[in-house]
Every structure is written in structure tokens, then in C-alpha cells.
């Protein structure tokens, strides 16, 4: 009883005294749901402030797994989504939860593993063939296991290879790409990683790039707008403004050169205007 | 070993280089957890006193609930506070999800049972005979509570330390309800997870040094009050 009296007071107090940070009226705030790997690359730290300056919107970037990023958008908890799981994205678009899916950029995935390469996959041009060899040799493979875009792609590759991976050689980390690379390094295991994270961890992990360049390994990022009918208070105009910005020549130019300074090579290739069929 | 030594060296460089972003993160963490502790005290102390000094049906059940709450997992709090503050949730209209206010709410919920539980134990530790004597000497109930609280002030300071220490180092709820937004809701702990994920171990080490130093300083301040000779 006593307790009940205090809860509203505590909540009211929290709102009253909490440090007031730049948060304009609702319609000036745009919520972007995106994936941890996008955030980890640092690209959004460059693009988001520029978008805020140019548009006058204040942006909140929520980086979670791809599964959650899209689920949040489908509930109207975000206004625009930047993701890299085309199959899942198309499903959401088909269901009407998201609309105007446009390709923004790509980077690529690679299969890495111990330099000794016990499953002998080095130089394979087909990712699925390489996975089949790993399964046949029962060499350790670390999976993200977190419904992320990377994990989604990995599962699709296993399905295409006709293999149902399982313990004891198949390890699910349930963590982000960086942590997963650390585990793979520690256990001398294979794993599937995006190149950006691998470059960021190049000095910490001793894993070699063994398979690259296969078409299914292209990691295509799309921007999608949230259907305002998904929930109350969806800022549709703000979502569209950010999607348009990502495809603008200015943003595309920044994407083209991002990463050169730090890694000596760009992390992403801008592809505004292209369609899925072009790849 | 190299990584650890190198990490510490660069961390100290970052701290003395006075990177404004790191200091802003520190300041935000202090503000958020300080506010949440204050709310937890405002709610927890009266509740703890009432639970210690009164008898009513369901009291044991309520105390068990408080004791369970002392070990409330932050991610559970984060999840439920998120659900409540979602745009589609009952408090969606407030639009405070992904703001520091949301973290304050979640952290206050985590700290309140800790403060309540320790207050309850502290007040109950004051002998009942002492309370009856006070009342017998003609003290009003309010006066009696004031004297009892003064008697219990040493463990009460422990309640502040436990509450603050618990929430400033908490990660699950801050991540979920704050969203770890750069320049807005990035706290010491969420920044640490992010920097570790990015492979910037030196920054993560710098942040962990700051976090430990901050908790240590707060505890030094509170302990020196606690251990001062009663005048």
C-alpha cells in the first residue's frame, strides 16, 4: 500500500530532476534502429551529426541485433531502419511493416580461420563448399548465434550447404562480432565475419582470411522506412528525411572514403540507385 | 600481457589528455546514478522504516518481496521499464525512452529495494526496548523515528553506498532503456561495452579506471562521514 503511493512519486521525480538533454518536440526526434556492426564501424558517428545539422532533426540511434532492429521498427518503436539482412528485410516489406527499401552500400563477409587451416578451405571460391569441408572435418566453428545479420547469413549458407551444424564442433557465442572473433582466435576456430570488424581487430586476432569474394558473401545494407500504422507516434517524415539523406550524393561520397584514414582501405562501397538484381 | 600494459599506458594518456567525450560520459553517469540514488533514498528509507516499525497483514510477504528485489537483475528491470516506456506502452506519451530520464527510472527501481532492505535491517537492529523507552518518556512517534534513524545512521550510509555502487556499475538496464546513444545516453559502463566491441581496449581500460575511481571517491566521502566520531 505504502509502496503504491511511492511509485508514481518516484517516477514523477525522475522526470522532473533528470538531466534535460537536447530533446525537442516529438516531431523533431528521429529514432534509427540499426545493427551493432554498423555502429561498431564508426560510420554513423560521421553521418548522423551531419544529418542532424542539415535537417534540424535530433537523431537517436539504437544499435541492436538485426532481428531486434526490425522487430522494434515493426512495432513502431523506430522511424527508420538501416539493416543488412535482405531476406528478412524483404519479409517485413512484404508484410507492410516497412516500406521503400533502398540499397545504401555494401561491404563483404569473409570466412576466417587458423593459419594452419585444418579443413583446407583456403582459396575456395564457394562459401558453401568451404562450410561443407569444415563440417566434414568437424573442425571448430564459432557462430554468433544472436539472430544478427551476420548470423542470419551464416545460417543461410549452412542451409545451402545442406549441413545442420551442431555440437561439439559448432560453438554459439551469443555475442557481438568482436567478441566472437576473440573466441574464434582463442579456440583456433573458423568463423564468418564482416570485413570491417575484422580490420578493426586485425592487431588482436591471429586469424587468416581463407574464403572471400563469393557473391553470397556480399553484405548489402538497406535503409527502410517504418509504416506509420505500426504504432503511435511514428515520425514518418523524419524517417524519410534520414533515408533520403543516406542516398544523397553527399552521404554516398562520405561512405566511399570512410575507413581509408584508419585502415588504408575503404570499409564500404556506396550503391545508391542499385537494385538487388544488380548483384 | 603486452596488451594490458599498453592498454594501461594509453588509458592514462587518454585520461590526462582530458578527452572531452570521456569526461562528458563520466559526468552523465554521475548525474544519472546520483539522481537515481536520491530517488531510491526518498522512496526506500520511509518504506524501510514503516516495514520495520509496524505490523500489518502481508508484512512478511512484502519484506520477502523487498529482499528479493535487492537481487533484482538489472536486465529484468531494463526489459520491463522498456516495455512501459515504449511508444506503444502505457507511458509512451512521455517520450522518455532512450533519454537519461529513462536510465534514472530504471536505476531507481534497482536501487530502491536495496535501500529499503538495508534501512529495514538497520532500524530493526535498534533494540525495541529503546523505542518503547522513548515513547514512555513522552516522545511523539515522529520524534521516536527521528532518534531511531539517528541511531541507525551507520548502516544507513552503507545503504547509500550499496545503492549507488550497484547502479553506477550496472549495465543491462542502462543499455536497454538508454540505448547507449553517443553524446546523450552513453554512460561509463555502456561505453565500455561498445569500446570493447570495437576493439578499442585502451579506451575501455581508461573508462574502467574512471569508474573505479569514481566509486572509490564516493565511498571515501561516505565512509569518512560514517566513521566520524559522534559529536
Number of domains of chain B: 1
Radius of gyration of chain B: 21 Å
How many helices of chain B in DSSP terms?
A: 11
- Give the helix tally of chain A: 12
Output the CATH class name of the largest domain in chain A: Alpha Beta
What is the straight-line distance between the termini of chain B? Answer: 51 Å
CATH topology of chain B: MetI-like fold
Fraction in helix of chain B: over 70%
CATH H-level name of the largest domain in chain A... which superfamily? Periplasmic binding protein-like II
What proportion strand of chain B? under 5%
**Which blocks of ≥5 consecutive residues of chain A have pLDDT under 50?**
1-10, 13-26
CATH fold assignment of the largest domain in chain A: D-Maltodextrin-Binding Protein, domain 2
Largest sheet of chain A: 10 strands, mixed
Please bin the fraction of helical residues of chain A.
40-55%
Taken in chain order, the helices and strands of chain A follow as: HEHHEHEHEHEHEHEHEEHHHE
Q: Which CATH architecture of chain B?
A: Orthogonal Bundle
| Assembly annotation | heterodimer
Q: What is the largest interface, and how many residues per chain?
A: A-B, 45 and 43 residues
Identify the CATH homologous superfamily of chain B: MetI-like
Order of helices and strands of chain B: HHHHHHHHHHH
| Terminal-residue CA separation of chain A | 63 Å
Annotation keywords:
heterodimer; A: 279 residues; D-Maltodextrin-Binding Protein, domain 2; 2 domains; ten-stranded mixed β-sheet; globular; disordered N terminus; B: 231 residues; mainly alpha; MetI-like fold; 11 helices
Give an account of the 3D structure.
The complex is a heterodimer of chains A (279) and B (231). Chain A is an alpha/beta fold. Chain A folds into two domains: 26-107 and 220-278, D-Maltodextrin-Binding Protein, domain 2 (3-Layer(aba) Sandwich); 108-217, D-Maltodextrin-Binding Protein, domain 2 (3-Layer(aba) Sandwich), CATH 3.40.190.10. Chain A is built from twelve helices and ten strands. Chain A has helices spanning 2-17, 36-41, 43-55, 66-74, 86-94, 127-137, 149-161, 177-187, 195-200, 236-247, 249-257, 260-263; strands spanning 29-35, 58-64, 80-83, 98-114, 141-143, 170-172, 190-194, 207-211, 218-226, 269-270. In chain A, strands 1, 2, 3, 4, 5, 6, 7, 8, 9 and 10 form a ten-stranded mixed β-sheet that branches. In chain A, helix 6 (127-137) packs across helix 7. The radius of gyration of chain A is 21 Å and the shape is globular. Chain A starts with a helix and ends in a 9-residue tail after the last strand. Chain B has helices at 2-16, 20-53, 59-69, 74-85, 100-125, 128-136, 141-151, 153-168, 172-178, 188-198, 201-227. Chain B is globular. By secondary structure, chain B is mainly alpha-helical. In chain B, 42% of the residues are buried. Chain A binds chain B through residues 2-3, 6-7, 9-11, 13-15, 17-19, 21-23, 26, 29, 31, 36, 39-40, 42, 45, 48, 60-63, 75-77, 176-179, 197, 200-201, 203-204, 231-234, and chain B through 3, 28, 31-32, 35-36, 38-39, 42-43, 46-47, 50, 62, 86-88, 92-101, 104-105, 108, 112, 179-182, 184-185, 194, 196-199, 201.
Amino acid at each position: 500500500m505504502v509502496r503504491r503511493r511511492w511509485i508514481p512519486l518516484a517516477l514523477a521525480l525522475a522526470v522532473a530532476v533528470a538531466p534535460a538533454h537536447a530533446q525537442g518536440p516529438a516531431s523533431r526526434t528521429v529514432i534509427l534502429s540499426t545493427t551493432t556492426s554498423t555502429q561498431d564501424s564508426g560510420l554513423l558517428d560521421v553521418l548522423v551529426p551531419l544529418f542532424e545539422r542539415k535537417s534540424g532533426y535530433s537523431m537517436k540511434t539504437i544499435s541492436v541485433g538485426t532481428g531486434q532492429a526490425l522487430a522494434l521498427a515493426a512495432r513502431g518503436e523506430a522511424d527508420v531502419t538501416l539493416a543488412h539482412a535482405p531476406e528478412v528485410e524483404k519479409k517485413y516489406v512484404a508484410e507492410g511493416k516497412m516500406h521503400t527499401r533502398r540499397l545504401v552500400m555494401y561491404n563483404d563477409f569473409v570466412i576466417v580461420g587458423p593459419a594452419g587451416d585444418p579443413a583446407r578451405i583456403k582459396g575456395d571460391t564457394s562459401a558453401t563448399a568451404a562450410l561443407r569441408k569444415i563440417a566434414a572435418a568437424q573442425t571448430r566453428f564459432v557462430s554468433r548465434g544472436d539472430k544478427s545479420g551476420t548470423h542470419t547469413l551464416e545460417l543461410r549458407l549452412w542451409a545451402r550447404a545442406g549441413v545442420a551444424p551442431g555440437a561439439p564442433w559448432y560453438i554459439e557465442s551469443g555475442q557481438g562480432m568482436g567478441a566472437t572473433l576473440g573466441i574464434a582466435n582463442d579456440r583456433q576456430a573458423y568463423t564468418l565475419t564482416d570485413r570491417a570488424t575484422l580490420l578493426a581487430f586485425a592487431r588482436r586476432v591471429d586469424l587468416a582470411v581463407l574464403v572471400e569474394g563469393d557473391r553470397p558473401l556480399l553484405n548489402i545494407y538497406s535503409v527502410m522506412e517504418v509504416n506509420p500504422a505500426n504504432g503511435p507516434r511514428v515520425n514518418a517524415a523524419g524517417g524519410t528525411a534520414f533515408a533520403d539523406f543516406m542516398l544523397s550524393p553527399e552521404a554516398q561520397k562520405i561512405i566511399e572514403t570512410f575507413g581509408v584514414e584508419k585502415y588504408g582501405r575503404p570499409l564500404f562501397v556506396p550503391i545508391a540507385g542499385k537494385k538487388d538484381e544488380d548483384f | 600481457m603486452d596488451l594490458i600494459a599498453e592498454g594501461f599506458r594509453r588509458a592514462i594518456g587518454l585520461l590526462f589528455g582530458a578527452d572531452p567525450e570521456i569526461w562528458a560520459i563520466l559526468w552523465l553517469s554521475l548525474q544519472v546514478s546520483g539522481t537515481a540514488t536520491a530517488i531510491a533514498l526518498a522512496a526506500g528509507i520511509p518504506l524501510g522504516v514503516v516495514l520495520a516499525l509496524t505490523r500489518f497483514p502481508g508484512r512478511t510477504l512484502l519484506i520477502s518481496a523487498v529482499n528479493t528485489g535487492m537481487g533484482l537483475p538489472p536486465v529484468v528491470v531494463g526489459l520491463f521499464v522498456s516495455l512501459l516506456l515504449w511508444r506503444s506502452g502505457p507511458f509512451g506519451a512521455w517520450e522518455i525512452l532512450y533519454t537519461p530520464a529513462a536510465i534514472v527510472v530504471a536505476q531507481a527501481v534497482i536501487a530502491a529495494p536495496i535501500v529499503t532492505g538495508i534501512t529495514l535491517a538497520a532500524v530493526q537492529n535498534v533494540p525495541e526496548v529503546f523505542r518503547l523507552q522513548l515513547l514512555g518518556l513522552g516522545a511523539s512517534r515522529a520524534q521516536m523515528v527521528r532518534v531511531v534513524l539517528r541511531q541507525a545512521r551507520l548502516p544507513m550510509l552503507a545503504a547509500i553506498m550499496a545503492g549507488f555502487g550497484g547502479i553506477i556499475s550496472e549495465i543491462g538496464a542502462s543499455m536497454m532503456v538508454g540505448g547507449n546513444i553517443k553524446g546523450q545516453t552513453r554512460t561509463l559502463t555502456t561505453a565500455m561495452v561498445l569500446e570493447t566491441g570495437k576493439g578499442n581496449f585502451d579506451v575501455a581500460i581508461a573508462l574502467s579506471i574512471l569508474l573505479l575511481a569514481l566509486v572509490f571517491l564516493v565511498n571515501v566521502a561516505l565512509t569518512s562521514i560514517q566513521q566520524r566520531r559522534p559529536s
